[in-house]
Every structure is written in structure tokens, then in C-alpha cells.
Amino acid sequence: MAERGSGLLGAALTLIHTGRAPTRSALTAALGVTRATAGAVIADLRDLGLIQVGAGSRGGAQGRPSHRLVIDPEGPVALAGQVHPDGFAVALVGLGGQVVARTSWAAPVPDDPAHALAPVAGAAAELLRRSGRRCVGAACAVPSAVTEPEGAAVSPLYVGWPTGAKIRDTFAGLLADRQISVPSRVVNDVNAVALAEHRHGAGRNAEYLLVVSAEHRGVGGALVLHGALYTGSSGLSMEAGHVSVDPGGRPCPCGNRGCLNVETDAARFMAAAGRVPRPDSPVLDQATAILSAEHRSDPRVAEAVALLVQRLGLGLAGLINVVNPDRVLLGGLHKYLLQAAPGQLRETVALRSPWGRGAAVPIHPCALDHGGLIGAAELAWQPVLDNPGLLAR
Amino acid sequence: MAERGSGLLGAALTLIHTGRAPTRSALTAALGVTRATAGAVIADLRDLGLIQVGAGSRGGAQGRPSHRLVIDPEGPVALAGQVHPDGFAVALVGLGGQVVARTSWAAPVPDDPAHALAPVAGAAAELLRRSGRRCVGAACAVPSAVTEPEGAAVSPLYVGWPTGAKIRDTFAGLLADRQISVPSRVVNDVNAVALAEHRHGAGRNAEYLLVVSAEHRGVGGALVLHGALYTGSSGLSMEAGHVSVDPGGRPCPCGNRGCLNVETDAARFMAAAGRVPRPDSPVLDQATAILSAEHRSDPRVAEAVALLVQRLGLGLAGLINVVNPDRVLLGGLHKYLLQAAPGQLRETVALRSPWGRGAAVPIHPCALDHGGLIGAAELAWQPVLDNPGLLAR
DNA sequence: GCTATTTTGTTTAGCGGCTGCACAAAGTCA
DNA sequence: TGACTTTGTGCAGCCGCTAAACAAAATAGC
Lengths: 393, 393
Prior knowledge:
The structure is a homodimer. Chain A is of the alpha/beta class. The first copy, chain A, has helices at 8-17, 24-31, 35-47, 113-131, 167-177, 189-200, 260-263, 266-272, 283-291, 299-323, 333-340, 342-351, 371-386, and strands at 51-54, 68-71, 77-84, 87-93, 99-106, 135-142, 145-146, 153-154, 184-188, 208-214, 220-225, 228-229, 327-332, 363-365. In chain A, strands 5-4-3-6-9 form a five-stranded mixed β-sheet, with helices on both faces. Chain A has a five-stranded mixed β-sheet with strand order 12-11-10-13-14, with helices on both faces. In chain A, strands 1-2 form a two-stranded antiparallel ribbon. The two termini of chain A are 12 Å apart.
């Protein structure tokens, strides 16, 4: 098999992976190469066990139908884990963001990262063993900022891990103990969601994608630039949770007041709506339940929505003025806030934009069900997407 | 002459341009190619009239001395212009950021962009004619956000241009009238400063460079990522001037209150220090004069410094938490504020950072005298830096 | 001052990836 | 059924880069 140069092989696999090259001729056009070269590339990817070439079926157009490029259903998978304040999840994810197998369970997160990640590694190993498939890499989404390139947790506000814990090494070690020796990474959960949405969800084809999400607790932000996660110089970028939206607001664990974190998350919504969260289920679930149609008539709920949407709009406007995205996605509770009051949110953002509503950015809800897992898998797949030839060795 | 592929020629020229490859062997190492390939690349660049190969003189080290790579002193130049609220400047800039010729004059800026840019184009044409050198491109720095790719001014707060004016087309047309037909651009002034500082000033080798500057009026921000200006999806990124640092503060032309624009610029400093600006000289000059040593004993000046530094620190902290830069540069009035109270500024930033002072980002003053002009020239040079072969045609 | 060593520049042969072209294959349209 | 259109494949060839051998220019050691 010829070694392709200049990343052509990776570009081709990425196009197939993201669904932008469903047929052979589409790939040829997207790569900007001759049919002969595309043929060689496709042969390589097939030899690597990543894709299969199917029969071309097409109606209406002239000429010889182009063969379909399909992801090999027995091809390798990435191992994805997720830790959030209310529980755990693990999945095997193939090319194209296909979730091949998945399991999840609710449980408190131990204060020791090794104790917290051990069951994730265990469940992952079990899923992988049963699937019998090759593993290209592993990644775990966590509710904490993660430094690059060390892979250390920084001020995880909603789990009890110590700041500076090298959770990437911990995770890799736990997998190695189970005979899984693949490149392993740890990633902030909202970063993972953003990457997943960009590749397979509501963020497709956006070149400057801003994602803000109130997952289980707190608020996170992420930016995907030209298809790659923007992590900043040390992994600590897009700390959207600490954007100030109310100088006289509630204290945030970071030391300031009125951060997006404490002003627009599920706990704040419950308080604003006059509800006391029950301890037996995740706050996020309770908040989204209240946001559903049957409770909208409650004036306290309407007030809470108006308040949080106003705060969220302020925070979004600030981020938009810095990042100038071409699309904004909202996840977690923010997704439901957007759906409850889309007009008010867009209005608030436009009012705070120096350019007015003329330069309005489209704001959409996140589209994926398991964005954290799929996004973690994207990160695990990335080295292969950059250079598929890695699999040959 | 062989056409080099995959941007090798451009990478080589950029290394020489930024001073990272002063000798032939340094270039070979930096490019990661063989000496034979480097030889071919150097021959190409020399044939294009961009560089010359000098004799190698070096003391202390063993082995044959490597030839020096020097920028051709008769090589082509870029044409750089600058418009600011207090006047105009024009320069010819060669490779390496060398200002070959320069002229500037104070004058009010006409409300019609064509009238404002005409003398810039005229002075540029005159400089170019007298120099007798080839021109690779032109760019003009302006005190306004500029949309990409249209090149339109958006809400120029400090000159009277209409929003949406296509000043790039205007500028290109004025140059074409004077028989200068080269690619022409228009760029925000702080963006230009940032690019210049990254290539030739205090931002060298930074991968994530954040620049905030209070030039003549207002405040601007810019970001240089991996050597290229970050413009966002439509050129309107890094609107640092509209970061809110005092919700109850002064009204900003954008409609909000307490923006960095109105809380930390030269006019605000004068007011805080109890001075009334004289109309006969630029406010920035008056403010920096007051900031010099002999006025520091004035308690009102000290108060003004403390107030503005506190506001600036708040704004910087917000930007740093989003961008996570590896270096921050301050220009214009902010440069002098930093020099007047470096400890207080760094303290304020660190206090507002969720990671505390452990992850402190280095904050430095800008180093270049004519950053706006040099940065505009960088933009004009960019197509040639990306593909020097363009000059052959 | 001579030689040995080190590092640099140049020449040459050769490989590998990609293009361009010719031709075959597989569909639609009249 | 035949003309047309589009797609896949085989083959010759170019071009950029590498590898290796050789020549050149300095220092280091005797």
C-alpha cells in the first residue's frame, strides 16, 4: 500500500467520517484531485479496514452512478467515557459518530479520581471485549477544565477532585491495567459536546462554532475553529462559566459574583422558579421537566425563564463580540431556555451587540443525544483522522 | 526555476522574514528538510529578488560557517497607510518589517472615506515613485472594525465614516487611479499592531497572542493565533472595546454602559485626572505626557491610574479567560498604564482569574514605534509570504 | 604549518505521489 | 438501439524531495 503524502488520506477519511463525501465522485471533487488519485486513496482506506465500497444507486442524474463509500461496519471503534456530577457513561463509537454500544449508570462521583475513573475503565474494557473490535483510542469527558498537554484537572467545581490531579495519566493507567494500550485523553465535557455537534450535529459546516451549555451543574463554553477544538495555550480557554453577567449577583466558587455559572444553571433556575430540588434525581432533569409545556403557565416559571434568558443573553453577547462565530449552539438547560423563549434570547443578544441585529448570528439548540460521549470519541479518533496510515503499523 | 510545492517556499520566506532563519543552516533545520532542498529553495528566493546570500562569518563554533541570508536591500516593498482620528501616515515596508520610507501628517479626517483616503493614496504613490522599487501590495490601517471579506467599515466611532462604507474598494480604486495595481486591503488598526508585534516586536514566538490597546481614541483588541490574525467569521472579532467593566459606568456609543472603550481610553484618563484636554494636540499625547514621571506625584494622577488600571484589569481578565493566551501585549495608553502600575494590573488580572495567579499570563508593553504601519504592511506582504512564486508572474 | 575533524554546500541518482490521458464501464435520454 | 454523460482504471511521465557521495571552509590539535 502506498503511503499517501500531505495528509490526503486523512482529509479523505475526515470527509467520509463527517458525511461530506458519501460517494466516490463526491470525494474526488471535495479533495480536488484526479479520479486516479482518489482511487488510490480509497483503496488505501479500504485496505486499512476503515471503509467499504458499495454499489452506486442513484436516480435522476445522467452518467454512470458513483460507488457509495460506506463505513466498514466491522471497522475499529473509539472508546468513550463520560463522568458528570450525577453519574457515568461509556460507549464504543465507530467512524461517522455511530454509537455501537453504550451503557450508563447513576452514582456519586468519588473524590479520588482513580476511584471515579476505575468503573469507567472497567465498563469500557467489558464493552470492548464483547464487541471483539479493534480500538483506535480512548477519551473521557469530565466536568472540569483540563490542562493541555498535561491532562490535569483544574478547579473541578462540581466533583471533589483535587486541583492539578493528572487525570489523563490516571485514565490511561486504568485502561492499561485492563490490557487496553491505546492513546488516551481526557477532555472537558462541553468541549466534547462542541466537537460532536460540529462533526455530526447542529454545528456541521460551521467554521467558527461557539457552544455554550449548562450541563448537569455550572456552565461551560467551547469553540470549534475550522474543524478543530480551540483549547487556547494551555487548555483553559472559553471559560464561559466565569463570564460576569450580574456584578451584584450570587457568589461563584471562583471568588467573583454573578458568573454565568451561578446565574444560569439548573440550580439557579430551580431557585428562581421557587422550587426546591429533590435530592433523589439530577437537578438538570428536574429543571427541564419544569420547563416543559405543562408548567409554563406558572408565572414563577415564566419569571425564571425571563430572568435566566436575560442573563444568558448578556453572557452570550460578550462571547460573541470576542469570538465572532458564524453559529452558536446552546446545550443542556440553555437549550431548553432557548426553546422556551427564542425571541427574547435573540433580542437580548442583538441589543448588546455593537453592530445591532444586522449582523445577527444564528443561535440553535444542540442536536445530539450523547454529545459528550461522541465528542470524546472524536478526540480519540483524531490521530487516525489526521493520518489513517497509523493503523497499518 | 522550479515551483516548490506544499508551501515550502512560503515557509522559508516567513522564517527569514521573521528573523528565525538568519543563516542557511538555520533555515535547513527550521524547515526540516535536507540541505539539498534548502539549497533549491534559497536559489528560488534569490532568483525572485527577495533575498541575497552573504558570506558566513561566525566565531567560536567548529565546522564550515553557514552563509547568512539577508533581505535584498533593493527588493520589493509593501505600501502601508494609516488613518487615525488625529492624522495620517504612510510608509514603504520591506521584508523583515524594515521601514524604508515614511511620512506622516496631522489633519482632521474627512467624513467621506474617499476624501480621507485620497491623500494617503497620493502620498503612497509619491513615496513609491521616488523609491523606484517594486510593490507587492498595499494595506491601510483604520480606526474601525472592518468586515471580511468585503472590507467595509462597521461603526467607526471616532471618524465620521458611514457604517458599511466599502473602504477597501475605495482605497484600491484610489491607488489604481495612480497606476498602482496591487492587491489592496484595509485592516483595523489594533489588528495591524498585533500582527506587527507578533512578527517583529514583543509578540515574537507567541502562539496565542492577545493585544489590547488604547490607541488615539477608544480601545481595541486583537488576537494572533499561530502566526495569523484571528478575524472571526466576518472580521468582527475581539471587540475588546465593548467588554463591560462597569455596569453603572459611562455610556458608550454602542448603547451600553461602562465599556472598556469609554472607561480606559485617554479621554477617560484625562477626566479622571481632573485635566481638560486642549484641542490643539492629540488627547493620547497629552495623557501620556501626564503619565510621565514628573506628574506622578499629583494625587489625582495617581487616583486616575489606579482607577483605569482596575478597569483595564477587569476587562483583561475576562478576555484572558476566554482566549487563554500565552502572552498579552498592551499598547497606546494601556502600555503606559502598565508601566505606571505593573504590580496592580497583574494583581487585578490574577484575582479575577479562576485559576488564580498560578496560571499567570505574561503581560508586556508593545515594543514597536510604528506598529500600525508595519502591521498593515504585513497584511500586504501576506500573499507573497504564503506563496513567493506569485512574484514570478 | 600541517593534518584531522566538523560542519556546510552541491551534485547526482532515484523514489514516490500526483497528474494527464486514453480507454472501458455503467447509467440516462431521445 | 444508439448517442451522450459521467465514472472507474491502467499507464506514462513529471516534479519535488530524499539519500548519499563529494567538495569546501572553517576550527582543533599536534
